[in-house]
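for the recovery benchmark. tokens below, seq after
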């Protein structure tokens, strides 16, 4: 072999070694830049909080960048409501199925609900109309009693408390005072007579004491469920913004404070978002008017698709340091479909506005997919300063009741007590995508998303893990690259699917 041949061979060898080392270095560098994630998906194709570990190999069509240094509101929680109807149905099931449902909602292995609601006195999802103050003109409420809650409602709450390792907050809402306190002397409609303002404030204080005696701590209240009324169809009591603020400022707030309950949260309003500006302008008009308000409660029934971002932003800016909580949402005016997952993903549902909305508001109430409504609204709320989101009934029967007014609704869990069967609808899994992975005191953080057909929200938990929720309501699969701190991972989300992507603690 000639010297020049040896020299060329050595050069080739060195070049080969260099290329090999370069490939190894690039591979290692790529591994170092890959995000470590856990992906859970619920989809129309059949996934139900299913762990996804393999994705189709396709070029990413979009980028989703997480910006943890951009922090927004702190999360209060996610959950649902304890109603007499739900509690009654649970008592009709076998112990096995009752326990299954309670654990599904409140255990760490389940949805791990952290924020809940219940009703004071009866509501439409009660078996009968009743009040804790049954004796007329009992100004000091000497005959106050929660006996109506002891058979069903209180046992359900206690069972949930026993299962929940992290605990959960409970706020209570009245639909109406007893008829004897109102100007129309009826369960439905009418206003609280001013001479009973102090008695009604005492009612809240006595409720806290009564539930405490049962071992159930009450975190707070909404002042009145739907103060505009509900078409005078079921229990209701009307307030104007000025009347409610007068009651809170001069009666409820001072009474709770005087009774050593000044730490109980008071949320004003508690109806649809389109009316927010009118209410927060009055509630937070002055330091005195806002003193006892800890925040604002809202419902979602103004539209099946619009989450009113401008109204939410306005309410936040009016009181940036106070709560903004969605306290009730459900698929209303529908009989739930039994064991038919497809229906919950299909645009076949209607709501009250489909028939009843005014001509100018009809466009807000098209037919919709129940899943889309939940996912769109929760993500939209998170991206517009809402810090808590509470579903309505946790359990209903195949008719969408029991409801004394026959105001049928859908719940995430449907049961057939006669057959002792339970059905976890897709809505249960949609709720769990948020409640299970975004925990109380998490911070909503910034997201830069290049695909406008995907809805995205992200939050950083107290343990520094990050939850990213992505919703694809379209009919085609989507590929995207998730970026965080110069690390990335390529992910595919199926058509009609929601994903929660967990980025573990660093």
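predicted aa per position
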């Amino acid at each position: 072999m000639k010297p020049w041949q040896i020299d060329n061979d050595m050069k080739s060898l060195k070049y080969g070694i260099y290329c090999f080392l370069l490939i190894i270095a690039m591979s290692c560098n790529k591994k170092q830049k890959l995000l470590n994630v856990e992906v859970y998906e619920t989809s129309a194709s059949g996934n139900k909080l299913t762990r996804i570990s393999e994705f189709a190999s396709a070029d990413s069509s979009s980028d989703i960048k997480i910006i943890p240094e951009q922090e927004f509101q702190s999360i209060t929680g996610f959950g649902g409501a304890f109603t007499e109807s739900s509690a009654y149905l649970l008592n009709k099931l076998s112990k096995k199925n009752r326990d299954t449902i309670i654990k599904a909602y409140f255990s760490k292995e389940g949805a791990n609900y952290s924020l809940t609601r219940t009703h004071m006195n009866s509501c439409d999802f009660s078996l009968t109309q009743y009040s804790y103050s049954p004796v007329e003109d009992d100004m000091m409420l000497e005959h106050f009693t929660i006996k109506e809650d002891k058979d069903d409602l209180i046992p359900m709450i206690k069972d949930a408390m026993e299962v929940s390792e992290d605990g959960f907050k409970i706020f209570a809402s009245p639909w109406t005072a007893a008829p004897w306190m109102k100007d129309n002397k009826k369960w439905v409609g009418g206003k609280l007579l001013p001479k009973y303002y102090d008695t009604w404030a005492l009612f809240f204080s006595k409720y806290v004491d009564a539930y405490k005696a049962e071992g159930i701590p009450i975190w707070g209240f909404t002042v009145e469920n739907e103060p505009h009324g509900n078409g005078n169809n079921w229990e209701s009591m009307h307030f104007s913004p000025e009347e409610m603020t007068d009651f809170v400022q001069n009666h409820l707030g001072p009474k709770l404070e005087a009774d050593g309950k000044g730490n109980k949260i008071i949320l004003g309003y508690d109806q649809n978002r389109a009316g927010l500006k009118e209410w927060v302008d009055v509630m937070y008009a002055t330091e005195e008017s806002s003193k006892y308000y800890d925040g604002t409660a809202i419902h979602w029934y103004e539209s099946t698709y619009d989450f009113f971002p401008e109204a939410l932003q306005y309410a936040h800016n009016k009181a940036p340091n106070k709560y903004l909580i969605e306290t009730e949402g459900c698929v209303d005016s529908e009989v739930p479909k039994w064991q038919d997952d497809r229906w919950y993903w299909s645009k076949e549902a209607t709501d009250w506005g489909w028939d009843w909305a005014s001509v100018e508001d009809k466009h807000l109430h098209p037919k919709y997919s129940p899943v889309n409504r939940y996912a769109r609204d929760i993500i939209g709320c998170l991206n517009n300063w809402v810090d808590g989101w509470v579903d309505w009934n946790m359990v209903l029967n195949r008719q969408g009741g029991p409801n004394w007014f026959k105001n049928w609704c859908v719940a995430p869990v449907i049961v057939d007590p006669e057959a002792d069967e339970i059905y976890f609808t897709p809505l249960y899994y949609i709720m769990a995508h948020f409640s299970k992975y975004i925990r109380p005191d998490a911070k909503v953080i910034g997201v830069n998303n290049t695909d406008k057909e995907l809805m995205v929200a992200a939050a950083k938990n107290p343990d520094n893990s990050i939850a990213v929720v992505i919703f694809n309501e379209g009919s085609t699969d989507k590929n995207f690259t998730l970026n965080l701190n110069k690390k990335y991972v390529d992910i595919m989300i199926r058509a009609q699917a929601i994903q929660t992507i967990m980025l573990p603690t660093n």
